[in-house]
Amino acid sequence: MAFAAIAAQTGDDYLVATSQMLFGITVAVVVVAFLFLALAMRREPLATGFPAAAAAAFGFIYVVVPLAMLVQLRQQGSGAFLILYVLIVVWIGDTAAYYTGRALGRHKLAPRISPGKTWEGTVGSFVGAIVCGTLVFAYSRQIGSGLISVGLLTPGQAYLPPRIPPLWQFGALSAAINIAAQIGDLAESLIKRGAGVKDSGNILPGHGGMLDRIDALLFAAPVIWYYAAFRVLS
């Protein structure tokens, strides 16, 4: 079944859900900011209250809101396919950056924030993400049909258009996701530098912590969500 047909049948539901999500994000951010400020009044010494409240509110916006966007995206038509797509683009970008940087890296990207990142790795990540993301949509019918056949997706969750739109659009979307993901990676490194720690946690030994595994996704998630929201609201 093509996405157009699915949208025609359940477009109102998607529109309501997307509008509610936009409203919910706004309310949640405001409420959480005031809640943490109120709780910070109990801290001793009091001078640490505002920094602690600001850090807690930032953590909510930084982690919870992007992940909530992915949960809501899953409820939209073709949402499961879009989540698979963004995961592939982020993972391929990370992998391409690592291997390109190791093989060709000479010029440091941001030595004060992340000494291991290079401009060569950044370019490799960018190109790899665009190529891979475009191919995912170019073969979306085959991918969707295969996942449906093994029971991992339903027709409403896959992307099965009667005709694939111009692939440059998906190349541009993949480029935007990759840029956001790379900024997210650098932002998480900046947070660790500011906190004076090498790893964000020890749950995953050798991986820099759990946050290191999702830092790029946290910045990429809003890009794919707003793309899907624009598709629904337009």
Task: Describe the model.
The chain has one domain. The protein has seven helices and two strands; from the N terminus they run αααββαααα. The protein has helices spanning 3-40, 49-73, 79-104, 119-138, 140-149, 167-195, 210-233; strands at residues 108-110, 114-118. Strands 1-2 form a two-stranded antiparallel ribbon. β1 (108-110) and β2 form a beta hairpin.
> What's the Cα radius of gyration?
20 Å
Give the proportion of residues in helices.
over 70%
Biggest beta sheet attributes: 2 strands, antiparallel
Calculate the mean pLDDT score and round it: 85
Name the shape in a single word. flat
Low-pLDDT sequence parts: 1-10
Give the N-to-C terminal Cα separation.
21 Å
Give the strand line-up of the largest sheet. Answer: 1-2
- What's the number of domains? 1
The total of beta strands comes to 2
SSE pattern: HHHEEHHHH
Number of helical elements: 7
Helix and strand composition category: mainly alpha
Strand content: under 5%
